């Protein structure tokens, strides 16, 4: 049964539906693997065995009766530790929230439970979700699947590690500036950033509410589609036959996202574009100068909102925080209200320009992360290095958040190098359908 840990969530669901996999045994397999894993304490903040066992038993009864609630009914998943869970601590990776125990589940957790997903537990994360690296000396720093001495990426660090190390079939995280996609890319997973407002954030510990989104970290695009449907309480869309890429038009973004591109992501990105062209796709380099202003002002947009939410608590108890994270929050206090409003007006104008420029393309492409996972020890000992690596890690993913898009990252076949596809607001179904074809094309690299 250990092989179940490495199957896609979709395949596990199909196995349950066919009677080949018992949800109770499946849950115990994952729970046992967590208990035995040497890095489990760096991945899971806490497990929920009693809840999971009850949910697995209920899923097993439904499977026997032929009344399954969804394609993933009975499949065990992990939850980032900023989703409220009734009677179980939700601390968002911060000592500021130590001992915080909600009395009800987040809306999205309630919905997913009603669709039959089984909760394994809560995963570690960057403190209050305000870092793309996943470094958290205050609680735990999750390991990268390729090297446990390197960070997993953040802020959904434990979420990615739980799937990559075979300790969950899928994970649910949040993405405010790249927090689903960075750890997905660095751990060779598929990760979906949803359009802001699409999936309920009720019951999430917030960071910047105008940018906060919920999304899955998975082994495959199909899994992303199935988990998204479960999070929304609906049946998944029919992704149809595997799409071909002939005559598909892709915009390969050149503005900002190729600056300071490290050697490994650069090589993986250009090889990925060559594979798409070989499959018949049209890939055109496209500049988007309207990005430059918002990218330069994004720090003010994020820190101002984050400081508005957390500033008072940080002023009182900020000494409990990891100093670089605290400094990011405090930077928002220096931005005036008028400057913040003006920046948002400029951002909305840039979004309109982007939509007009990119409307004729099937998706916009860029390297998901321009850098590789940094070494934990160096990040802890070199303050300037931490700052530059954190900002670089989140730079490319931030494009989709700023432009109000949905986006998916896919493994390229090169370790810790992802390819990002961005689609228009609310276009998740279309983007995921297209991403299946890209996924199939890129997976050929890994088999050669």
TrEMBL record:
InterPro entries: Amidase, Amidase_CS, Amidase_dom, AS_sf. Keywords: Ligase, Transferase. Residues 26-432 form the Amidase domain. GO terms for molecular function: ligase activity; transferase activity. Its EC number is 6.3.5.-. It comes from the Bacteria. It is an enzyme of class 6 (ligase). This is Glutamyl-tRNA(Gln) amidotransferase subunit A. It comes from Roseivivax jejudonensis.
């Amino acid at each position: 049964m250990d092989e179940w840990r490495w199957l896609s969530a979709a395949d596990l669901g199909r196995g349950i539906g066919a009677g080949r996999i018992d949800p109770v045994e499946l849950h115990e397999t994952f729970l046992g693997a967590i208990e035995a894993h040497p890095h489990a304490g760096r991945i899971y903040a806490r497990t929920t065995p009693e809840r999971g066992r009850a949910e697995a038993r209920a899923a097993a009864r439904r499977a026997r009766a032929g009344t399954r609630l969804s394609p993933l009914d009975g499949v065990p998943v992990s939850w980032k530790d900023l989703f409220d869970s009734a009677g179980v601590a939700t601390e968002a990776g911060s000592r500021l929230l130590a001992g915080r125990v909600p009395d009800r589940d987040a809306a999205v957790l309630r919905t997913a439970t009603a669709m039959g997903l089984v909760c394994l537990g809560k995963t570690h994360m960057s403190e209050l979700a305000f870092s793309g690296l996943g470094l958290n000396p205050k609680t735990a720093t999750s390991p990268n699947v390729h090297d446990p001495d390197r960070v997993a990426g953040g802020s959904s660090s434990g979420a990615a590690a739980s799937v990559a190390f075979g300790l969950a079939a899928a994970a649910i995280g949040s993405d405010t500036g790249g927090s689903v996609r960075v750890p997905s890319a660095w751990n060779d997973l598929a990760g979906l950033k949803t359009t802001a407002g699409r999936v309920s954030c009720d019951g999430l510990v917030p960071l910047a509410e105008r940018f906060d989104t919920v999304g899955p970290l998975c082994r495959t695009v199909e899994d992303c589609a199935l988990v998204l449907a479960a999070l929304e309480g609906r049946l998944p869309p029919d992704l149809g036959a595997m799409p071909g890429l002939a005559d598909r038009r892709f915009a390969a973004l050149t503005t900002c996202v190729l600056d300071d591109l490290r050697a490994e992501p650069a090589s993986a990105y250009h090889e990925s574009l060559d594979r798409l062209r070989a499959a018949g796709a049209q890939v055109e380099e496209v500049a988007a100068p309207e990005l430059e202003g918002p990218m330069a002002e994004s720090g003010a947009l994020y820190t101002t909102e984050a400081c508005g939410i957390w500033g008072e608590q940080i002023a009182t108890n900020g000494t409990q925080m990891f100093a670089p994270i605290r400094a990011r929050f405090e930077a928002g206090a220096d931005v005036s209200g008028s400057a913040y409003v003006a920046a948002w007006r400029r951002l909305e104008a840039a979004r309109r320009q982007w939509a007009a420029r990119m409307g004729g393309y099937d998706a916009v492409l860029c390297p998901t992360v321009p850098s590789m996972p940094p070494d934990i020890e160096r990040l802890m000992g070199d303050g300037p290095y931490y700052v530059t690596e954190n900002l670089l890690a989140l730079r490319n993913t931030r494009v989709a958040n700023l432009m109000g898009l949905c986006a998916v990252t896919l493994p390229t076949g090169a370790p810790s190098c992802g390819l990002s596809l961005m689609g228009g607001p609310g276009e998740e179904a279309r983007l995921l359908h297209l991403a299946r074809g890209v996924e199939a094309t890129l997976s050929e690299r890994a088999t050669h």
